[in-house]
Amino acid sequence: MIKSKHLIEIGDVTNDEIYEILENAKTFKEINDRPIKKLPTLRGKTVINLFLEPSTRTRSSFELAEKRLSADSLNFSASSSATVKGESLLDTAETFDAMKVDMVVARHKYGGYCRILADHMDARIVNGGDGIHQHPTQTLLDLFTMQERMGTVEGKTVGIIGDIVHSRVAGSLAPALKRLGARVIFIAPPSYLPAVPAALGAEVSHSLDAVLPELDVVYLLRIQGERANGLSVPSLREYSMLYGMDSRRMAKVQKDALIMHPGPMNRGVEITPEVIADPRAVVLDQVNAGVAVRMSVMYMMLGGEDDGAAA
Amino acid sequence: MALLLKGGRVVDPAIEMDAVLDVLIEDGVFKEVAQAIEAPQGAKIIDCTSMIVTPGLFDLHVHLREPGQEYKETIASGTAAAAHGGFTAVAAMPNTKPVIDDGAAVRFIADRAKETAAVKVYPLGAITKGEKGESLAEMADMKAEGALAFSDDGRGVQNPLMMRRALEYAQVLGTPLLLHEEDEALLAGGCINEGLASTRLGLPGSPDLCESLPIMRDIEIARYVGEAPLHFCHVSTKESVEAIRRAKAAGLPVSAEATPHHLLLTEDALDASYNTNLKMNPPLRTEEDRQAVLDGLLDGTIDCIASDHAPHAPQEKQLEFELAANGTVGLETTLSLIVDKLVRPGTMSWAQFVRACARRPREILGLPIVKFEPGEAADVTVIDPEAEITVTTDWLVGKSKNSAFLGEKLKGAAREVIVDGELVLEAGTLVGRGKMAAEL
After folding, report:
1. Does the pLDDT of residue A227 top 80, yes or no?
2. Considering the entire predicted model, what is its pTM?
3. Do B196 and A199 touch (CB under 8 A)?
4. Which residue in the set A88, A133, A196 is minimally distant from B202, CB to CB?
5. Longest distance between any two alpha carbons in chain B, whole Å
6. Could you report the predicted ipTM of this complex, rounded to two decimals?
7. Residue A195 touches partner B, C-beta closer than 8 Å
8. Three-state SS for B373?
9. Do the Cβ atoms of B368 and B356 come closer than 8 Å?
10. In the predicted model, what is the mean pLDDT of chain B?
């Protein structure tokens, strides 16, 4: 089970807990391959998916995980929500708290907002992505995929490529990999780098071509058009020339390396269709692992509770 | 009624006074400052044994929020807080709603202060209309109504031509500009220091360059324009301090202030709790910056300490960090923080304290300083250097409780505050106009 009440940052779980989450996820992954994909584990538990920022895959992944564990879940999205009417997040938190829910999975465009939920609710909070801060369940599913394919991340070199300063994915993945014994290299132009990469456990390179042969994992981030507007990089085209993965660059990638992407992908920008089709690309494995890993997280946070008494 | 302050250590570096003396106050002015003064008939005697007696403290950078945001603070509540914190006078920033940008608005502040304030209030006017940075505000009219200086505090003047014209105009009037320096293009939405904190917490960063670059720009504009007096508000970075030091060495008429939070806190105070009471503008910087600001204060590059008292209601602070309002209240904690953290450990002398908190703020605004000499206006702060306080929401008398220092236990506090010979704080309790203002 997980000691921390909440999963807001990847730092909330210990290395041993991470390994346990990944181990249990294997079982859930098998269940996801069965014709009847349902367990009674979280029967009677209520989970709210509070997504104040648009999301398709993360919200669907959580929702499937909840349903397959028999939790009662409710979706609350930005457009349908009271936030449109000017309700503060504090009031949203207190309102749901009054309705007695067991867990809130939340996404919002502002870093650190989970703290407001945690401070004003009894429910356990799972961060589904907060601004440019962290996205811990994405990290766990990425680790699952890496472990599944490579056995371990220890001693491996992972290159994270793209708009890192605006990436919550990188914000939790890099420190987790570092803790688990991997080497992390941020590969990006200076405008896409955080102020202190070392604070996230990463080294820096500005040249993808220079480090590509060293990488065991090529982790590509989505490039958002509005952040390639000529101020940060000249154009998407030039970004692709310097940092995009295409067939030419694939020739330099190790035979057994992995190409990963948290989605949604910009085909032709950070990744070409040929790369997606390469057997080394494991993007759909990541999505597949997502449901299992989230089932595992929820099981380990809520499953051990008897009749609502905190574990 | 006459007041006799008995046996306190009177510290007034302006007249090279630092001795245990009695101070007799009558008709709002100092009557006599000497040893063993005989109390006149009917005089109120206040035993000041072991107390520090200083010229009344002056905070030249506070936000009183009236008119327009009386739910945060009023001239009455803010000056009650000032009296509680040991200040006999404050200068009120003009970024109210509406902005104080014409003579009538300045007069409103002066009139409201006369009716409701616990301590002296000096209105400041805006540099540009509505603090929009687009056209000059009517500075001459505001000056005629009593504005001592001009500031667009809360925002930097972005356009260098606007700044040039403002400096030229202010120079003719002989009034200083108090500059909030911030380049909004470089800021790009940053809300905490760009560095370790922004990386760790995943929040947009504000590079120190945002502040030092416009400071350097305006020093150069001032040099070009001539003798325009410039005052830099809430200096927070090492590069800013160095630029100001160079400007002073070059003989330019520049001055600067530092806040207690930039002197005492760093970005390291920000953690996973995302405490929005630590969100301020400029943001808390690095230890190197903090040390540079403190060194600047100690060597005189930074002239004075100002609280940048910025009251906000809970609903403006209990928000996502990026959406929360900037600022901390400070009028009630400045004295105790500086005494506890800098004066008591010996980093700063009492004479330096008086210079930074009483003398320089008045000089920067062109006001006469308070001197312990017969006939001078009797604005006095009596400090108990051994008094222990805990900063709690109950202890703060101001309307808003958004202090960056909540929970802090501090040694050293104001015991008496005297404004024009009248007690507004006595034995740590608001009295007279202090009590009136607190109850309004």
Report:
1. no
2. 0.94
3. yes
4. A133
5. 67
6. 0.91
7. yes
8. coil
9. no
10. 97
Q: What is the pLDDT of residue B228?
A: 80
Tell me which chain B residues have a C-beta less than 8 angstroms from the C-beta of A136: none
CA distance A169 to chain B (A): 11
- Candidates A52, A196, A204, partner chain B, best to mutate (most B CBs within 10 A): A196
Interface touch B321/A9, C-beta < 8 Å: no
Residues of chain A in contact with residue B319, where contact means CB-CB under 8 angstroms, are 88-90, 116
pLDDT at A310: 38
Chain A nearest CA to B325, separation (Å): 14
Find the Cα–Cα–Cα–Cα dihedral B424, B426, B429, B432, rounded to 10°. -30
Question: What distance in Å separates the CA atoms of residue B198 and residue B320, rounded to the nearest whole number?
Answer: 15
Of A11, A89, A199, the CB nearest to B199: A199
Confidence of residue A307 (pLDDT cuts 50, 70, 90): very low
* pLDDT at A41 exceeding the cut of 80: yes
Q: What is the pLDDT of residues B322-371, one digit of tens each?
A: 999 999 999 999 999 999 999 999 999 999 999 999 999 999 999 999 99
Element (H, E) at A76: strand A72-77
Ordered by start, the domain boundaries in chain B are 3-53+374-439, 56-364
- CB contacts of A132 in chain B (<8 Å) are 202-204
- In Å, how far are A161, A273, A278, B40 from A247, measured between CA atoms? 17, 9, 9, 98
B373-386 pLDDT per residue, tens = 999 999 999 999 99
Check CB contact under 8 Å for B321 and A110.
Answer: yes
A171 contact residues in B (CB cutoff 8 A):
202
The structure tokens listed for A309 are 């008494």
Residue B200 CB contacts under 8 Å (≥ 6 apart), including other chains: A199
3-state secondary structure A22-38: HHHHHHHHHHHCCCCCC
Q: DSSP for A189-244?
A: -GGGS-S-GGGGTEEEES-HHHHGGG-SEEEE-PPPGGGSSSSSSS-HHHHHHHH-
CB contact under 8 A, A196 and B195: yes
CATH code assigned to B56-364: 3.20.20.140
- Phi, psi values for residue B369, rounded to 5°: -85, 160
Question: Which residue ranges form the domains of chain A, and what is each CATH number?
Answer: 10-132+287-303 (3.40.50.1370), 136-286 (3.40.50.1370)
| Catalytic residue IDs of B | 308
Are B199 and A8 within 8 A, CB to CB? no
Q: Report how many Cβ contacts below 8 Å link chain A to chain B.
A: 66
- Cβ A111–B202 below 8 Å, yes or no? yes
Place of tokens 């109210």: B96
Q: Looking at residue A231, what is its pLDDT? A: 83
DSSP-derived 3-state class of residue B385: strand
Per DSSP, the residues of B253-272 read: -EEEEE-HHHHH--GGG--T
For residue A199, give the nearest of A172, A221, A166 by alpha carbon. A172
Count other C-beta atoms under 10 Å from residue A52's C-beta: 21
The beta-carbon neighbor of B323 closest among A110, A134, A196 is A110
Q: How far is CA B220 from CA B54, B163, B178, B227, B331, in A?
A: 37, 11, 16, 12, 33
Say whether B202 and A168 touch across the interface (CB within 8 A).
yes
Task: Tell me what the mean pLDDT of segment A106-131 comes to.
Answer: 94
Q: Which CATH superfamily is domain B3-53+374-439 in?
A: Urease, subunit C, domain 1 (2.30.40.10)
Residue of chain A nearest B208, judged by CA positions: A195
pLDDT tens-digit readout, A46-84: 999 999 988 888 999 999 999 999 999 999 887 655 555
What tens digit of pLDDT does each residue of B140-156 get?
A: 999 999 999 999 999 99
